[in-house]
Write a structure and sequence with these properties.
It is a single chain. It is built from 9 helices and 11 strands. Helix content is 29%, strand content 27%. It is α/β, with parallel strands linked by helices and 258 residues long.
Length: 258
């Protein structure tokens, strides 16, 4: 992927459900090689934004480009981790098979995965500390373990751009730290990672870019520049937990936008 092109470029994107706008006239330009959070209140359109980028919902207007081309031409560049709650975890399959599904896009549907795919899947499970569970049925996993399996499936795609929808939801502190380390490793490798996130307190610690969304794009850019009290008020409209600094050199502390 050319570094002079944005990883993602969205122009005038509008999505409506039953004539109610969920996203309205959104413009967004995401550079290559950043770790970006999408934050906003419930109903802000965060998940819808990712689904519109991936062609999973049809926009009423606007366009999306991935590395300068429509998503349909760039599918091989993209990895996606949906919300854990959107998956049927009772499906009768084991952890290793779920992770190898991440290679189907490269194999095509008529080639069965072989030893190379198995080795890649085991390596990905090693990265998320789940290799000992390779033969475990997915229904037997905890929520945090399921999330790690999903991340491993995305890793084997070896994508350039990753979209992750609430990867920290319902996981324990150990799993959260492991996920953060993995996301930061992906960024260090030059990947672009876009994460729907809900915990405002961890945004400055985990991410270098942030997009604040509430149907419209409120602000987007480096965390130090746009993750401000004013923008949080605009996004959340009233009282909201936020991170403030008593002075320029003071550490971040909890607060409330009034």
């Amino acid at each position: 992927m050319q570094s002079d092109l944005p990883a993602i470029e969205i122009t005038d994107l509008t999505v409506a459900y039953r004539d109610r706008p969920v996203l309205w006239d959104v413009d967004l330009r995401v550079p290559t090689g950043i770790l970006m959070a999408i934050v906003g209140p419930n109903g802000a359109g965060k998940t819808t934004l990712i689904k519109a980028i991936l062609g999973l919902v049809k926009p009423a207007a606007g366009q999306v480009q991935i590395a300068g081309k429509p998503y349909a031409q760039q599918r091989s560049l993209v990895g996606y981790v949906p919300q854990r709650g959107s998956v049927d975890w009772d499906f009768p399959t084991n952890v290793l098979d779920v992770v190898m599904m991440g290679r189907y896009g490269s194999l095509g549907w008529f080639r069965r995965p072989g030893q190379p795919e198995r080795d890649l899947a085991l390596a990905a499970l090693e990265k998320v500390r789940m290799v000992d569970f390779a033969q475990r049925q997915i229904s037997q996993l905890s929520g945090g373990q399921q999330q790690r399996v999903f991340l491993a499936r995305a890793l084997v795609q070896d994508a350039a751009i990753y979209f992750m929808d609430e990867p920290f939801q319902g996981v324990d502190a150990t799993t959260e730290r492991a996920i953060v380390a993995l996301l930061q490793d992906l960024r260090a490798a030059g990947k672009t990672v876009v994460v729907v996130h809900h915990d405002l307190q961890t945004v400055p610690e985990y991410f270098d870019w942030v997009t604040l969304l509430n149907v419209r794009r409120i602000a987007s850019g480096p965390v130090d520049e746009v993750f401000t009290e004013e923008n949080l008020r605009l996004a959340y409209g009233g009282r909201v937990a936020f991170l403030s600094r008593a002075s320029e050199h003071a550490p971040y502390t909890n607060g409330v936008v009034q």
